Amino acid sequence: MSEPQAPSEVTHVLEALSRGEPQAARQLLPLVYEELRRLARQKLAHEAPGQTLDATALVHEAYLRLVGKNPEQPWDGRGHFFAAAAESMRRILVENARRKRRHRHGGDLERQDLDPDQIIAPEPRDELLAVDEAMGRLAQTDPAAAELVKLRYFAGLSITQAADVLGMSPRSADRLWVYARAWLRRELRAV
Fold first, then answer.
1. Which residue ranges does the chain devote to CATH 1.10.10.10?
2. Is the pTM of this model over 0.90?
3. Which long-range contacts (CB under 8 A, 24 or more apart) does 173-180 make?
4. What is the domain class of 1-108 according to CATH?
5. What would the pLDDT profile of 54-91 be if each residue is shown by its tens digit?
6. What is the CATH number of domain 121-191?
């Protein structure tokens, strides 16, 4: 596994991409690919076995959404790019879970094993949808807390890195993190 690229190199390519330089998109993927795959593996670890998406497909879909849709998107550095990548991956997984819940895909029916004595637990995609809905409610009441959760949970940033992206002190981010986790825990218990 290669070492993560220096932030300055990624930031430099992101700036070139924002200026519309055509070769920048080709330069960016090799620089961020391993870190995006690590992030994708992290996300998929919480998904049900037999997931139709693998880490490679998730990275490619997220990358296309980030760079393909608007190649001149201004990126405010490496942290902003990876936060957007994490958000894009989260949305792809939520869309996939919703698609699988549709009636033609079995809707809310649960899979049954051949052994009728076994009880099947709810599938993790239901948990993902519950977290997504709770995140939407948190964003309405406290947008900064919701953004911090995205950066910490979905982008895998440390408190210090997330605080830097959000422009707050690590101590303030730590207090906000404690609040956001408690708020989400309470919301998810109520579901």
1. 121-191
2. no
3. 173/148, 176/144, 176/145, 176/148, 177/148, 177/149, 177/152, 179/142, 179/145, 180/138, 180/142, 180/145, 180/146, 180/148, 180/149
4. mainly alpha
5. 888 888 888 888 877 666 667 777 788 888 888 888 88
6. 1.10.10.10
